[in-house]
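PROTEIN DESIGN WORKSHEET
SECTION A - STRUCTURE
LENGTH: 527
TOKENS:
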């Protein structure tokens, strides 16, 4: 697929001087319109072979355009902080906001290509990464981004010639390193790997533009003209790319759902609650200090009906932890900064590093709950969000994060009781707002959205735990127990503590306690 970039494209100086002034003016005008409308970000990937002119082209773009609204990101080997998080974390953090242009020198393609060349990434794993990249870029485009991917190509002879030219000039000799010759030897291998990657990621929504890199004038004019044409087209239409989305949700014909099937009468009396709370908080304190946790992270997601007790459950988890080890992220309406980015961006920024814990009070599921019901996003946006969320959580789990998701469910009657109690309690009045009462009128819509959410996003790596929360004692203990058991399962403990019997009686009994109750210890001096 590189044949068209080996035919000797050139632009003479006379043509260059004639075309560049008009191109620069047009690019500045398009960049001004981009900033004024602030509806889309532009993401430019500059990739290719060594010495093919990647850095020179970026410098040309800075010369031709207003640098105030450009940002360049260069990515080399990941830092220790970046290795502690999913591979895509550092790229999410670098995404430009709407109205800006981000130029990536090195990108999410660099690591898989480099690993494949080293022999540390099997072809099946490379294809899995490629599929992940395609889905990521589709998400960016669906969120409004203009994604332009340039691959600068040199033939083997042209690369040798460029290497010798750089070596012979004292001003550029520093660019030639001991590794440069080695990379020249692996030219054919790079062609094979890059050709495979480019072919598999040459999608309709983010195609590759292969540019011959030997002639500086041709390369720069080609990139500038492609950028101008693409900007003009997007600014003229204003429409996002229409990529495939998820199928419609399944209608309920019998009224039965995962939420309506819950037994909300489960209770736990105060004495049993005190015992179990102390037990599971103590166990969580031990697990969070386990040496094996240093290589993992924990993400707890709390969603549920208004007034279902999310905050209280979070406080009981926090009460077992070192305050330096965790953070709690309350999620409300997005800020202006967050609205200028893809909706998952504001959650990526809070992904914890290894050995840390993040608890989300509300989360990325707002896209398929409140944004869906209140019309804050289009139907196609929340439909595609299911697969994008699954991808996000899969990346977290692959990087070592333990993702635990809770949906807290209460009845309508219990919600009304708690709403009234909040209004009557001075230190709880801040918890009840007009929006809470208004959302209550859409109870059935929110219940249907929650059922769809559970059905489509309860995966093997990040399943949903549905919590019967009419009784706060029961809900809090169940959540603590689930967190501990997930950690124990992930650590692979041989002996896991289990709760025996049904909780509906309000009595919790451990295996150890049950055994000791049958055979109580004898007192000294008695047979």
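SECTION B - SEQUENCE
RESIDUE ASSIGNMENT:
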């Amino acid at each position: 697929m590189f044949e068209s970039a080996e035919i000797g494209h050139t632009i003479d100086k006379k043509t260059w001087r004639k075309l560049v002034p008009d191109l620069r003016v047009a690019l500045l005008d398009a960049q001004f319109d981009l900033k004024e409308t602030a509806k889309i970000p532009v993401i430019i990937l500059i990739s290719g072979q060594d010495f093919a002119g990647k850095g020179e082209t970026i410098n040309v773009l800075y010369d031709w355009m207003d640098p105030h609204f450009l940002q360049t990101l260069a990515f080399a080997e990941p830092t220790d902080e970046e290795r502690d998080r999913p591979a895509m974390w550092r790229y999410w953090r670098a995404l430009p906001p709407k109205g800006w242009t981000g130029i990536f020198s090195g990108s999410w393609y660099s690591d898989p290509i480099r690993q494949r060349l080293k022999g540390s990434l099997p072809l099946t794993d490379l294809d899995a990464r490629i599929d992940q990249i395609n889905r990521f870029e589709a998400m960016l485009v669906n969120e409004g981004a203009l994604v332009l991917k340039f691959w600068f190509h040199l033939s083997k002879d042209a690369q040798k010639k460029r290497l010798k030219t750089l070596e012979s000039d004292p001003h550029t000799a520093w660019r030639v390193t001991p590794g440069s010759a080695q990379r020249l030897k692996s030219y054919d291998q790079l062609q094979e790997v890059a050709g495979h990657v480019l072919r598999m990621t040459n999608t309709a929504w983010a195609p590759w533009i292969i540019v011959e890199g030997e002639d500086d004038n041709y390369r720069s004019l080609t990139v500038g003209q492609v950028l101008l044409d693409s900007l003009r087209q997007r600014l003229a239409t204003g429409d996002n790319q229409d990529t495939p989305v998820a199928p419609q949700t399944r209608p309920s014909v019998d009224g039965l759902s995962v939420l309506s099937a819950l037994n909300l009468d489960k209770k736990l009396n105060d004495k049993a609650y005190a015992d179990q709370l102390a037990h599971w908080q103590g166990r969580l304190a031990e697990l969070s200090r386990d040496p094996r946790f240093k290589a993992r992270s924990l993400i707890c997601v709390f969603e549920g009906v208004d007034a279902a007790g999310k905050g209280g459950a979070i406080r009981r988890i926090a009460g077992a932890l070192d305050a330096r080890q965790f953070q709690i992220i309350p999620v409300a309406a997005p800020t202006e900064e967050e609205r200028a980015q893809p909706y998952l961006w504001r959650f990526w920024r809070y992904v914890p590093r290894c050995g840390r814990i993040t608890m989300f009070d509300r989360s990325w599921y707002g896209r398929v709950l409140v944004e869906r019901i209140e019309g804050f996003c289009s139907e196609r946006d929340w439909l595609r969000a299911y697969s994008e969320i699954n991808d996000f959580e899969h990346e977290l789990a692959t990087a070592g994060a333990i993702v635990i998701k809770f949906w807290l469910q209460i009845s309508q009657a219990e919600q009304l009781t708690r709403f009234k109690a909040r209004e009557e309690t001075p230190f709880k009045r801040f918890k009840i707002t007009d929006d809470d009462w208004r959302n209550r009128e859409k109870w059935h819509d929110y219940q249907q959205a929650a059922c769809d959410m559970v059905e489509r996003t309860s995966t093997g790596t990040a399943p949903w735990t549905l919590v019967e929360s009419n009784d706060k004692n029961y809900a809090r203990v169940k959540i603590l127990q689930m967190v501990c058991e997930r950690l124990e399962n992930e650590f692979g403990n041989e002996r896991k503590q289990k709760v025996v019997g049904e909780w509906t009686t309000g009595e919790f009994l451990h295996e150890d306690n049950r055994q000791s109750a049958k055979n109580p210890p004898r007192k000294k001096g008695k047979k």
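SECTION C - NOTES
Residues 13-37 form the longest helix (25 residues).
The chain has two domains: 3-237, 270-494.
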